[in-house]
Known about the structure:
The protein has 12 helices and 10 strands. By secondary structure, the protein is of the alpha/beta class. Helix 9 links the parallel strand 6 and strand 7. The longest helix has 19 residues.
Amino acid sequence: MYAAKAAGKSAYRTCTPGLRESAVTRAELIVDLATGAVRSAEALVRWRHPRLGLLGPAAFLPLAEEAGLIVPIDRWVIHEACRAAATWRERAPEATVAVNNAAAHLRRPDLIATVTAATASAGLAPRALTLELTESALIDGSEAVLERLGQLRELGIRIAIDDFGTGYSSLSYLHRIPATELKIDRSFVSRLDTDARAYATVEMVTRLAGAFDLAVVAEGVETEEQHAAVTAIGCVHGQGYRYGRPGRLADLRPVSAPV
């Protein structure tokens, strides 16, 4: 799609191996705030555009959704992330990987087959994979979606509610969705040391997660002050530039040691 746009109006490009190689995955570390040990990594999709360079997801994923390409992208990232995590676990048996999942993919019955094929082909234990779903994707709450999420949990796959607090937060869907963790949105974490209401929000979500027996991850931790704040609040895990910049999946080696 981007190659065709770069070529000008009325142009088209077929999907060649070269174009597929332009899609890349990077990963950001998730650490144990008490010890600094790396516990997981979140896979992040990027696009290496021939003219514009490395593009973040906001630059091309909305267009991919419009073009009906988001599900193939999701499948590719899940497979790549599972393969990488299987390699990491040779050195760190408890290392896990998290992958964002689009709402369109969640609504497809073949999501279960995609996930099971990805873990099986990589030799990855299902419990080592977390699917991250936004609140807007989960708010559908249809019986088919809930059943699919239940099947994933029965397989051992973990379910995270991503960017919690920015969408349609509702206690009612926390009762229905078989989630295993909440990820507190970075917009709250970034204001922890300047905004009392943001601090109160993070504290409230952390307590809420505890009440629902959910793990909690603070996203976007970039400074020592933010790290100290989320640790004091009681968040178990943190993610962000404070612990390391996103790197290539092939280069990342999560280990159970302080960072």
